[in-house]
Design a protein that fits this description.
By secondary structure, the protein is of the alpha+beta class. The protein has 29 helices and 27 strands.
């Protein structure tokens, strides 16, 4: 609403007079004590605010006690508003730096409303009052308890970590039970919104904290405690404050109510209202409501209301007219306000246009000034740029000459100096700002040029000295080369002479070799071979000399010699010129002669070898021909130059010991002897030998056929015997096939039915199946042996047949191996499953026995030490199998509930008189726990067995006593911490939650913890003894690393723990003083080995962590 007045004082007075003519006072009183000043406070802000206000007028229509109550309530609120504004204005400097919108501020009490959570909402909703302080900030307590618990609102700092810092709702400051949480750390008082319910859940937007003050409480209750007295028509200040309208209401006796009585006043009485209002103000009565005194004439007015109902209708009509007048006045004021607003907007637009025009003119003047300045700066920049270009041109001209100075030599130095002096005289003064720099460059470059020329002169002098020295060495090498050439020339001449002699010695073989005799061939070849070896050696001597002395016989060319002259002199690939001798050959000539001698000698050696071989063969052929003639002459008894039939038969018998049959002799003579000749001539003697060979081979073929037929007969007999052995082996293979099939069928069936059996039954079935497999393996070995024996000591002709039959049998036996292996694998898998199931059964037995043991502990209230004493009946310091079994027969057992007893039949009761594991199960469990197969359990092993661990699954606190209210918080337990249960769980009497007495394994602190809150939130759960290997480490036999080699046990447990493997804690980690490592005793879950492993390294590296 607008705060400035919209009517002038003159208009106010005119309007007031008009309202008085229509009975303004009656109008106001009819609306529950609003009064003239109340209406004036609404319509004319220039008046002081009255107790009633416009809101009071609306509530009392219709009269009656309820109208008075509503009017008084509105009056109370209206009177309290200026006081609240003053209090808030006074309180703002004190609350500087603290947002009144985000927290309750300086209020000492507040109200919590909303909260959708069914359980938490019923606990936290209500009123709270300042009670104490915690961690430097206020703490508040609910005005009433809930279920016997206090509800506290407090702040907790970062001493337990950032996640616990903020504002909390809980039954106790710092307790382990909370209902709501706000993470704002900067708020000095509880925030109004943004609370999480429950503390780890989402923000509940309906959860609201409202600060409480005196006025706010009165407004909330519906009645004002104080009402400011209203102003009169002349605008006088309030006279006094009354008790409030609530008490005045009780003093009214008429059924119509105070509002109706006041509404029934006449116009004359209304005219007297200012004087009555003034009197009421002096007596402590407000315009919005009366105190303990009643207004004069109230009884008369009540009677008039009861006796004159017609007047009520007239008064209501007047009220309607007054309402219409008020609405008309409001419309007029709204029109006037709109006109003034339009006029103000027009003036504002005109002012804006004038201001915009002035800004444009100022901007134009400013732009013109900027343009003039830019033109001046541009002209100055162009002049500077031209000057800079001239300087650059002059500097560039000088630097071009300086560029020549960088490549100056002895001949051009003076010329460059002269040119530089000329350009400096012409351009140096034009360099301007870079003149000094250019002069420095010139001096430096000329100094470098002079130094360069000096260096070149020194290099030239050294080069001349080097050339003279090189020429001297060249001449020396040239002289030495001439000497070597002369020596090489003598060697070449000697090689040429040897090659010539070799040619002369070999000439008889190469020209007349076919006509020489064997002795002549041998002698000539020997002489030629010796001559060739000598020629080859001398040629090789030349080559060796060239290899050794060749570099010394090459001389570099003379300096300055033209390439053509060097090429004419015979330049070598290395670029050297061979030495020349005025009286001898050159190196190139000698090389050619050496190559020629070597080539001709090697060629002649090969020629001699071929000629010798050819001559030798010729001599041997002549020798054979002579031998054949001699044999022919021996059997040609009649010396007629031909072998007749008799001589032919004699030749076959004498020469080959072969009796030639007459038929064969006739056939040979028919083929070899032409018609009319006496017999076989010497020219056909070789054909006779061939014919005799054919005849001899025919006789041999006949003999071989007879032998073959005899051998085949024997082979048939042998084959029959072998077939009997093959059939016998086949029967053994068939028997093996049946046994393998039976074992295979049993193993497949076992895989299907054994999984539902106990581990013991599974082992029995596996044993039965393995018996079948073993029988099949034995038969298979016998069949394989039988089949392999078939190939021994067999004739060559039967080997193919026997090998074929043998391979058929061996192929069958080979398939048996894979089938038996598959069956064995199935049985082995069943055994693995049985082993795992056995471990599961034993772990289940272990859990059941632990339930009995822990119930016995809670009932008898004994710890681990005393429990060991109860197990150790014979007091020998160890628990035998008999001790272990006997304890469970006499230990305390948890009784069954009535429902469980009623549900059992009589037979079931007889069968279950003894609860718990059987004696056989306990014996198995004892063997399982006896990990070292010692026949007893030591005290440490027993305590490891009964030790109970729990893991922190939600952060909580550990206290000094079982009582939550009376105990002290020791510290906060972090997530995944592990504790050892000492006692409990026990019920806490006051809060009615279960508590356990534990020892924190991290630092050894002992105290009490709530495992499950009263809202069902779990803080601890069983576990923590299973750890995961996160980095590979070693499992050793002893706690000390150095003592592992000295300790001897029945079973070696040393091995590597691989990453990802699970182990069970037997003794928690402790520091090994020698190495500084944190080590713990564990049992591997995979193979049950027990030993010590490093959990944390000296540098903080973690090897084991809680799974």
């Amino acid at each position: 609403r607008r705060k400035e007045p919209i009517f002038s004082p003159t208009a106010q007075r005119v309007t007031l007079r008009a309202m008085m003519n229509y009975g303004t006072a009656g109008f106001g009183n009819a609306y529950g004590g609003g009064g003239q000043a109340g209406y004036g406070a609404q319509g004319f802000p220039g008046q002081q605010q009255a107790a009633g206000g416009w809101q009071g007028c609306g509530g009392a229509a219709g009269g009656g006690n309820m109208g008075c109550a509503m009017g008084a309530a509105a009056g109370g609120c209206g009177a309290a508003m200026p006081q609240q504004q003053q209090q808030q204005a006074a309180g703002q400097p004190q609350a500087a730096g603290q947002s009144q919108e985000s927290c309750i501020g300086t209020a000492t009490s507040f109200v919590v409303s909303g909260c959708t959570h069914a359980t938490v909402g019923a606990i936290v909703r209500g009123s709270y009052t300042l009670a104490s302080e915690n961690h430097g900030r206020r703490a508040y307590k609910r005005d009433s308890q809930v279920n016997g618990l206090e509800v506290m609102v407090y702040f907790w700092d970062e001493r337990d970590g950032p996640s616990f810092c903020g504002w909390w709702f809980g039954p106790k400051i710092g307790g382990d039970q909370v209902w709501a949480y706000h993470p704002d750390r900067s708020a000095q008082t509880p925030p109004l919104t943004g609370w999480k319910v429950p503390y780890d859940g989402p923000v509940d937007t309906t959860f609201v904290i409202s600060p409480s003050t005196g006025a706010a409480k009165q407004a909330a209750s519906g009645w004002g405690t104080e009402a400011a007295a209203g102003n009169n028509w002349q605008g006088q200040a309030p006279a006094a404050q009354g008790q409030g309208f609530g008490m005045a209401q009780n003093k009214m006796q008429s059924p119509g109510g105070f509002g109706g009585a006041l509404g029934g006043m006449t116009g004359q009485q209304n005219q007297a209202w200012p004087q009555q209002q003034q009197q009421a103000s002096q007596q402590g009565m407000g315009a919005g409501g009366y105190g303990q005194q009643q207004m004069p004439g109230m009884g008369m007015q009540q009677n008039m209301w009861q006796q004159q109902p017609q007047q009520n209708a007239q008064q209501q009509q007047q009220l309607m007219m007054q309402q219409q007048l008020a609405q008309q006045q409001q419309r007029m004021m709204e029109q006037r306000r709109q006109q003034e607003e339009q006029k103000r907007m027009a003036e504002m637009r005109q002012k804006q246009a004038e201001a915009q025009k002035k800004r444009m003119e100022d901007m134009k003047i400013q732009q013109e000034a900027v343009a003039r300045k830019w033109a001046e700066d541009q002209k100055k920049r162009e002049a500077e740029l031209a000057q800079k270009r001239e300087e650059q041109r002059a500097a560039l001209a000088i630097r071009r000459v300086l560029q020549k100075a960088r490549t100056v030599n002895i001949d051009t130095l003076e010329e460059v100096k002269k040119e530089l002096a000329e350009v400096l005289a012409l351009e140096l003064n034009n360099c301007g700002s870079v003149k000094d720099k250019v002069q420095e460059e010139c001096d430096a470059n000329m100094q470098q040029a002079t130094l360069r020329v000096q260096q070149l002169e020194e290099v030239k002098r050294k080069e001349e000295e080097r050339r003279a020295e090189a020429e001297k060495k060249r001449l020396e090498r040239e002289a030495k080369a001439k000497e070597l050439l002369a020596e090489l020339s003598k060697l070449v001449e000697s090689a040429e002479e040897a090659s010539k002699s070799f040619k002369e010695e070999a000439e008889p073989l190469t020209t007349e070799g076919e006509n020489l005799g064997m002795d002549e061939v041998t002698a000539t070849a020997k002489a030629a071979e010796d001559a060739g070896a000598e020629a080859r050696n001398k040629a090789k001597a030349c080559s060796d000399f060239m290899l050794q002395k060749g570099a010394d016989m090459k001389v570099p060319p003379r300096p300055g010699a033209p390439p053509a002259a060097a090429a004419a002199a015979g330049t070598t690939p290395e670029g050297a010129t061979p030495a020349e001798s005025e009286s001898g050959p050159t190196l190139q000539d000698l090389l050619k002669r050496i190559n020629e001698v070597t080539r001709s000698t090697e060629l002649l050696i090969r020629t001699v070898s071929q000629a010798t071989e050819k001559a030798t063969k010729k001599c041997e052929a002549r020798k054979k021909v002579d031998a054949n003639k001699k044999i022919f002459s021996k059997y040609d008894r009649d010396n007629d130059g031909a072998l007749n039939r008799k001589e032919l038969t004699s030749f076959a018998k004498g020469q080959y010991s072969f009796s030639l049959s007459p038929t064969a002799a006739d056939e040979i003579l028919r083929v070899l002897v032409p018609a009319g000749d006496k017999g076989v001539k010497v020219e056909d003697f070789h054909r006779l030998k061939m014919a005799l060979g054919i005849a001899r081979e025919k006789v041999r073929d006949l003999k071989r056929r007879e032998e073959r037929e005899e051998r085949e007969k024997k082979l048939a007999e042998t084959k029959g015997e072998l077939q009997e052995h093959i059939d016998e082996a086949a029967k053994v293979v068939q028997t093996t096939e049946e046994k393998v099939a039976a074992a295979e069928k049993e193993s497949v069936a076992l895989a299907g039915k054994a999984l539902d059996q106990t581990s013991k039954r599974m082992v029995q079935l596996a044993d039965e199946c393995e018996t079948l497999i073993a029988s099949a393996k034995a038969t298979m070995a016998e069949s394989t042996t039988k089949a392999q024996e078939l190939g021994e000591d067999v004739q060559e002709e039967l080997k193919l047949y026997v090998t074929t039959e043998k391979n058929k049998l061996l192929q069958k036996t080979a398939r048996f191996e894979s089938r038996i292996t598959r069956s064995s694998a199935l049985v082995a898998k069943i055994r693995e499953v049985a082993a795992k199931k056995s471990v599961e059964e034993l772990e289940k037995l272990r859990a059941e026995s632990l339930v009995l043991i822990r119930y016995h502990q809670r009932t008898k209230k004994v710890n681990g030490e005393k429990l060991f004493t109860e197990f150790d009946k014979d007091k020998d310091g160890k628990i035998s199998e008999a001790d272990f079994v006997q304890f469970f027969s006499s230990c305390e057992r948890e009784p069954k509930s009535k429902e469980e007893k009623d549900g059992e039949t009589a037979e079931a009761k007889d069968d279950k008189e003894e609860q718990g594991p059987s004696q056989e199960d306990l014996e198995r469990l004892f063997a399982y726990m006896d990990e070292n197969d010692e026949g007893f359990l030591s005290k440490d092993e027993f305590l490891s067995f009964v030790r109970e661990y729990m893991k922190v699954v939600k952060e909580t606190v550990i206290t000094s006593d079982i009582s939550i209210k009376e105990s002290k918080t020791l510290r906060r337990l972090e997530l995944n911490e592990v504790v050892e249960v000492i006692e409990g769980p026990l019920k806490e009497a006051k809060v009615e939650v279960m508590r356990v007495h534990v020892k924190v394994l991290k630092d050894g602190i002992s105290g009490w913890v709530t495992p499950v809150g009263n809202q069902g939130t779990a803080f601890l759960e069983p576990g923590g003894q299973i750890l995961k290997v996160v980095k590979e480490t070693i499992l050793t036999e002893s706690f000390e690393l150095g003592a592992s080699k000295e300790v001897k046990k029945l079973k070696d447990t040393t091995r590597k723990l691989k990453e990802g493997e699970l182990v069970e804690a037997r003794e928690w980690m402790k520091k090994e003083e020698t190495s500084g490592l944190m080590r713990m005793k564990v049992r591997t879950c995979s193979d049950g080995k027990v030993g010590w492993a490093t959990a944390v390294g000296t540098s903080g590296v973690v090897f084991l962590e809680v799974s």
